[in-house]
Write a structure and sequence with these properties.
Elements (H helix, E strand, L loop, with lengths): L1 E6 L3 H18 L3 E6 L2 H5 L8 E5 L7 H11 L4 E6 L2 H5 L8 E4 L4 H18 L3 E6 L2 E6 L3 E7 L2 E6 L2 E6 L2 H8 L4 E5 L2 E4 L3 E5 L2 E4 L2 E4 L2 H17 L2
């Protein structure tokens, strides 16, 4: 269940946002718990860090959205804030309160759903995911976020993690299938790289925790596009 707060003083826009959320629920098979506030002071008063996403109007009568977001950030650094605004220049100020994005009024469902996709993707990345590996003599449970990259050597896969290396029997295709939803991308035929551990690029290599992993010419452009998209979504 994703908990969403709508902070909007115009009833028509608040109802439209709620309608869009219900439409998204049906289309994407999501489940939302929606709470509405008619002004910034309503959500700030006795605020508790219980929301996953806040849809915040910027221009409101009693407490504007930027001031409300500033107060919320003092108590909650994790909640995702998306501003709703009539004017783009106001939204740029959102970076000061670590807003994820903004939607300009009048609101289209397409623009709204794109921002919501981005917000939910960030939430999912926060959830600690595990995979099970068959190792000699038993099973090994690894946190996906701890895997830096997977290396293929023949029919052996080496999982390079922040806690050490682990070898199992398997193919790179199998590793890709297990990790494709977790922002891993092939650098070449021998490396499957966790984009979250890429610190930069240098001399045609991905820098992963200080180690240079060479990108093949055939995969370089795809890898760079995936990395750019990942970095644009992460703050």
């Amino acid at each position: 269940m994703i908990r969403i707060a709508i902070v909007e003083d115009e009833t028509a826009y608040a109802e439209q946002l709620e309608e869009f959320l219900h439409r998204y629920e049906k289309e994407k098979k999501e489940a939302f718990e929606i709470t509405r506030f008619s002004d910034g002071d309503g959500i700030v008063h006795n605020y508790r860090a219980k929301y996953d996403i806040i849809l915040m109007d910027i221009q409101m009568k009693f407490m504007d959205g930027m001031s409300a977001a500033g107060e919320i950030r003092k108590a909650d650094t994790e909640v995702i804030i998306i501003f709703i605004t009539n004017m783009r220049q106001y939204a740029i100020l959102g970076y000061a309160v670590d807003a994820l994005d903004y939607v300009v009024k009048p609101i289209s469902y397409f623009a709204f759903s794109e921002r919501l996709n981005k917000a939910l993707e960030r939430i999912r990345r926060r959830v600690r995911q595990n995979i099970l590996l068959n190792i000699k003599g038993g099973m090994l449970r690894l946190l996906v976020e701890d895997i830096c990259y997977v290396e293929s050597q023949g029919h052996t896969l080496i999982y390079h993690t922040i806690n050490g290396d682990y070898e199992i029997s398997g193919t790179m295709k199998e590793a890709e299938e297990n990790l494709e939803v977790y922002h891993f991308c092939r650098g070449n035929k021998g490396y499957l790289i966790n984009l979250a551990h890429v610190d930069g690029m240098q001399d045609g290599c991905a820098i992963v925790r200080g180690e240079k992993l060479l990108l093949s010419r055939a995969r370089k452009s795809v890898f760079m596009e995936a990395l750019t998209n990942f970095w644009s979504e992460v703050k």
